[in-house]
Design brief:
Blueprint (H helix, E strand, L loop, with lengths): L1 H11 L8 E6 L9 E6 L5 E9 L4 E10 L3 E6 L12 E4 L9 E7 L5 E8 L9 E3 L11 E3 L21 E8 L2 E8 L5 E14 L2 E15 L4 E7 H8 L3 E13 L2 E14 L5 E7 L9 E6 L5 E2 L4 E3 L5 E3 L8 E2 L3 E6 L4 H4 L9 E3 L11 E6 L5 E7 L16 E3 L12 E3 L23 E5 L13 E20 L4 E19 L12 E11 L5 E10 L2
Parallel strand pairs: 5-6, 24-25
Antiparallel strand pairs: 1-2, 1-9, 2-5, 3-4, 3-7, 7-8, 9-10, 11-12, 12-15, 13-14, 13-16, 16-17, 18-19, 18-28, 19-24, 20-23, 21-22, 21-26, 26-27, 28-29, 30-31, 31-32, 31-33, 33-34
Length: 550
Amino acid sequence: MKLLVSLLFLLTFNKLFSQIFINEIFPAPNSNQSEWIELINPSETNVLLNGLIITNRNSSIKVNDNIVIPPNSMFLIMKDTIGFSNSLSCNYIKCLLPTLHNDWESLTIRNLDSTLIDSIFYTSKLIKRGFSIERYDWSEAGFPENLYITYDSSGNTICRENSKVIKDFELIQTTKFDTGRISFKIVNNGRYNVKNLAVKVTINYRKEHNIFEKLFFSDTFSLLPKKDTIIIVIPIIKFFAEEEAELIKTIHLYYSFDSLNKKVSKDFETNLYIPKPFTNVLLNEFLFDSHTGCGEFIELLNFSFDTINLNDWLIVNSSGKKIELDGEKGSFYLPPSNYFVIIWDSAFYNCYEELKSRPNFFVSNSNFSLRNTGDQIILYNKIGMVHDSLTFYPEWHKGKLTSYKQKSLEKLIPTQKSYLSENWFTCVDPKGATPGELNSVSFDKNEKIQISIEPDPFSPNSPNKSQAKITYILPFIQARITVKIFDLSGFEIVTLLNNQISPSSGEFFWDGKTKNGNIVQPGGYIIFFQAIDAISGETSTKKTVITVGW
């Protein structure tokens, strides 16, 4: 019978000292408090300790009491209960603890035969008067990197779960945006290994006005050890090219794993809404030489069918100065057919006060600027791809004005590549610029020049309709006129007249040939007509479509 009782006692109270850990200490009490040490038994069985030896950096004390710590519970060793009598919801003993120093301390707990139970080491960086030091992960060594000052507002979590504690099973997913690619990192941040981890990545994108979903990555890992990492890299530039994608909408990361006999699953969606570089969202207007007391700006236009996410996009000039559309400071979503105006000096509103309440105007209050002698504008998207760019010069202004100060450069055809100087023209609006509005040289503007075409369509291969006669009436007595033909994509076909003196009316002809003498393909083409008043320097433009038949 005595042997049976002893066996039962050993089975109930196992001396598994590796199961007991120092969980929290209180080394810097207020005047009405005492120091204490909290132990934790995270196992599923009772643990018996037949006495303890507690040692600091220069002294030791012996505790002769038998200590029983129930499963998944805490146990306190205290100098006194003063200041904590109302918080003692777990078992405790009172004894004369060795001093817990506030500069640094090496604290060990052993059983009476000197077998090490646990130890921790802390420095003065972890000392805060009236606050405890907690342990993040009891299964890792008690070094400073595994310790922290409690986050609990009461200054401790005595007899309670620590304010920040590692989970048994936890995967941490982070997303990194790099030049032309996106990386997903999955880290096993839990206490235990993860089993049967299944990972899948899909990409939603637009192509030819249809939405597609592509499975980019799928794999299963039988084991992901603690602190191990899986990295999945998506080369966005390559994806655009291979799939002929017009817009990447979202990327979904899905994973599942086994945890405590049940399946845990997570689903993360990254909203990108990034268009293919040099498409859909482009530079449309900019002002680089403003009056004193006014401000410059850059305007973007979204001519896609989707709302574009501009969060974390960048504007950079040739000096490396930049403007960041910081997603943490605001929400930068640009709806279809809308403008987005980027301003770097609030003095801009001194000249455009009526625009103060307009949406999609962003003042960066940065040291960004555009040089009057010419500069570079580079637009980077969220993942560091160059989305649009140009290098401009003052000569991009067209006409014979004596000064182009406070006059912006505008695109004739917004969808055309921004680096083509022939597609940029001096703003002809009386305000000098049209930020957030239709460009003054746009095809949709009301124009004063009258143009008629006969015949329309015409056919270069027809003996009777081989060329078109284009008749015009100007709002000026005399002007210098320039006439260019573009295809519908914005590519210049031919210059018919270049800064030619003209009276208030006249005519000219087009035989349907390019500047190289080749006959164009049948279809629609754009006539761009610009007239500059010889007296006042006022500019007027006209755009219309001419049709070439078979």
